[in-house]
Each structure stands twice: as C-alpha cells, then as structure tokens.
Amino acid sequence: MNVQNPITSTEDSSESADAANQAFAAYLRRNVRASLELHRLDTSFKYFLAAAPRVFVSKCIDGRVHAGDEKGYPPSTVTYVRTEGTNVDLSPNNNRFWDRLHAVILDAANHTPGCPALFYALGHFGVMGSGCAAHNQDNDRALATVRQQAEELRKRYRPDELFIIHGMTNTDDHSLRLYFADGHELDTARLIERLNTPEMPLADPRHAFQRDFLNQPLDDREANVLIDGQPPGTIMTGPDAPMFHDIRAMVAMESYLINEMRRIIVNRSRNNVVFDPRLLEAVLDVLHSVSGLPTELMAPLAYQTIWNVAYTLHERQRLETLLDEEQRTLSLQHAENMVAYGEGFELEKRNTLVLVKPGRGNDLEALDVARRVIVQHRHRRGEQHHPPLVHVNVEVTGTRETWQAFNVTVLAKLLTMATNVKHVFGDDCRMLTTYSYRRQKRFYPVHVYPDSQAANAEPISSFPTNLTAGLTNEDFTRNELTLREDAFSQTCAKVASHD
Questions:
Q1: Residue (of 327, 72, 318, 274) closest to 188 by Cα position
Q2: Strand partners, 436
Q3: Which pLDDT band, with edges at 50, 70 and 90, does 6 fall under?
C-alpha cells in the first residue's frame, strides 16, 4: 500500500478541513517522534517495572493533570480512567471500569507477588490557577468525590490485593496531598514548608538529594548513557531541566531512583547516599505510621514522594521564570486545544488535551464537559481556523491476525465512540480516528467505514490517511498491516525530522 503523506494529502478542499488536517498531521508527527524515542527505552522501562507496583489512577479529564510526570511514573506504566471531576459509576454494570481495574489487579498478582496493585483516586485544585470545572471550582466537593470513591472501593478489596489512596493535585505546582484510610496524610507542599529553613533549604529540586550524588556520574551504565554522562545535579537545573522534560533523562532517572530506594528500604543492600536524609526520614515517619500499609509499597511510595517534592520545586522555579502573563496563563489555566477520547495519550504534553477515557459509566456526560472546556479555551495557544478537534483512539494489546479480529476490537469500538462524539458535538468538530498498541503509544489513522462510504457516513472526519484502505477478509494479514504501519511511521518520522 502507498500510504498517503499525512502532511500534504487533503481530500476535503474546504478551508476548515484543510486547517484541521494540518493540525492533526503535526500532532501525529509529534506522536511518532515521541513513540520512537519511547521504544529505545525498553530496557529502562523493564528496570523500572521490576521495582514498581502496578498502578491504576482515576482522575479528572483536565489537561493540566495529564500523565504521571509528577509521580515519577514513565508513560505506559500506569493505567488511567479520566472522567469529568473524577466521577465514576461504581455500579456492577460499568464493565469497562471493572475490566480495566481487574486487569491491573491480576497483573500485580502475577508479576509483583507480595505487592498489591496501587489505586489512586485524585481530584485537583488550583490557587493561582482555576480549580476543577466539573465541580464548579469547589475544592471540598472535588475532594469529597474522590474520598467517596476510595471508601467504596475499600469495601470491595482487601488491602493486600488493592491498596487504595485518595488525594488532591495542586495544578499550579503539581504537589500531591494523599490521604490514607486511617486518616494519615502525606502532603508534599507541607513537607516542603516544614523542611525549608534558612540553614537547610528545600527550595530547589537539588535540595531533595545529597550533594555528592548531585556532582558525580551515576553508577549505572545505561542510565548514565541516557543522561549523556552528566552529573544528576546538572539535569535538574533550569526551567527546561531534562530530568523533568526530556523523556530519555526522565525515564533514566525514574528507573534509577526507584531501584535505589528499593535497595535502601527493602533489600537494605545500600546506605542512603542519594536522597536528602531529612526528607527521607520525614517521608518514612509518615509511611511507617500508616496502619496496614503493605511493606512492599513502602519503597515505591517513598520514591514517589521525593520525586514529587523535586518536581514541585522545579515547577515553582519554572513559574517564576514566566514573566509574561500569557505564558503563565498557558501553565496555570486551561489551554487545551483538542479533545482526546479513548486510551493511549500519555506521550502528549501537559495541558494540550482534554482527556476522556471510557470507564466513567457515562461517556456522553464526560464528553459534554470536555466540549465546553475546549470551546472556551482552545484559542489560547493561537487562533484555530477550524471547528474543535476531537481525537478518538482505541488502544489494543497484542496484534490482530484477521480482519474479523480488527473489526471487533478496533473498528467497532471506534464507531461506537465516534457515534458518541457525533451525539455531543453534532457537526461542530473535526474528528481523527486511530488505533494504537499499549506499549508503543503510536497512533495509526484509520477510517471506520470503507473510503467509498466515509464521506457520507463520517462527514466530520476528513483526515485522508487510512491504513486499512481496501483490506477485507481475503487480504487482511498481520504482515500486511505491519507493513502499512511501518510505512506510515517512516513517512511521519522523515517529515518530522525537517520540522
């Protein structure tokens, strides 16, 4: 198949369709570039997962709380449900939610014996920026929602199979306030406030670590290569610090630090020569006080907390450098320019997507909140000469060997979701439909209907590239699909190299 170049192909001559297609093409190029980088880090991912619990996060669709950077978890290592205001239907009928949660529980049972899966229900609030739109900026209501969700789930699962925490994220600086079932709290903003003294400051990401560690190369060869042999202190410095913004450096440090924490706390094979002793002691004091906390979660939670302290301090410093009010607004307020409906969006930058993940129990309501957010805020990053953009993606695990399997697991689901989009947006949007693989996170564009029918059946879909064009029962093979996927990736990567 000759895959059309997504940069120049346009079948709809209207100005708005052309503008939408150009925006989608640039978006797909970024995704392919990031996905290729992700693939090169496979060894580091395995190293990270060897020390990490299996994690499920239920949180809001707000693009300011995207991904798991503030928690120190690399892309693809956390399973998310994203709903407006973290509202989830916990009735037995919401099969999508329970299937996803049970997959994580069983993954933990099979791959991290002795360590339960970890569940977070997270709301969010802002001080300088706005709070949760779904809760009308009512922080108490946002917290009550996640507290109720956590309490309901604790009735259903033993803590040794699913350990449940609820909390709030400050969207200004990404500090986390976590609540345990017994009432204990682990609040990184308060930790910083308490430990930051003139004599021993905690005001810079580097202050969360020991001085000798900051100034020497890492004692892990692969991690050291990924950060280009620089001392850790160097990659934590500045508003674009690689440890928090470059995927290679970020994954290298996440993998190194979580394993280092495990050696210190669980294996006791190393003395602490990495983390600031005061900070580590303060974190462990809280964790040791939590009733019923499984031992195997002690190291991951201590690592996550110290990472979040460093990340929060970095964000505070970065905000101080944003002297222009427009730049501060892009960081503190809604500035999303696309709705993302489905799974697999972890590689996209923070505050660019309003995320709606199936599992809420009422996708239409979540999509309607997303529509209102995107209509109000999508022009903050520049004038858009097209209707609101909606990206619908189905994420799959493993390959599809037959057209029937692809139809059932990809196309049929895309049609259901596209129908929901049509119901909420009507004709006032442009839609991109894709599929991706869970570990790869690369979007492959397809048309739900055959190209001969697409113009009438999918009038809001104008993106020209269709990787399954012409494939039917007779000629669909895994090899043919892989060839088309590779051709698309190479085309995007080639054009992206000239961007």
A1: 72
A2: 395
A3: very low
Asked whether residue 304 falls in the same domain as residue 395, the answer is no
Q: How far are the Cα atoms of 92, 112, 482 from residue 155, in angstroms, in the given order?
A: 14, 23, 45
pLDDT-derived band at 407 (thresholds 50, 70, 90) equals very high
- Retrieve residue 116's tokens: 């339960």
pLDDT in the model for residue 190: 98
Residue at 426 is within a domain = yes
* Spatial separation of the C-alpha atoms in residues 273 and 149, rounded to whole Å: 39
Average of per-residue pLDDT across 422-440: 95
Q: How many CB atoms lie within 10 A of CB 479?
A: 8
Q: Is residue 122 part of a domain?
A: no
User: Number of folded domains in the chain?
Assistant: 2
Query: Helix, strand, coil % (nearest 5) of the chain?
Result: 50, 15, 35
Task: Judge whether 271 lies within some domain.
Answer: yes
Mean model confidence pLDDT for the chain: 92
> Within 10 Å of residue 434's Cβ, how many Cβ atoms?
24
The whole domain housing 416 covers 15-40+386-496
pTM: 0.91
**Is there a single domain that holds both residue 300 and residue 196?**
yes
Other CB atoms within 10 A of residue 384 CB = 17
Give the DSSP per-residue string, 268-307. --S---SB-HHHHHHHHHHHHHSTT--GGGHHHHHHHHHH
Boundary (domain end) residue, out of 290, 321, 352: 321
Looking at the structure, do residues 314 and 196 belong to the same domain, yes or no? yes
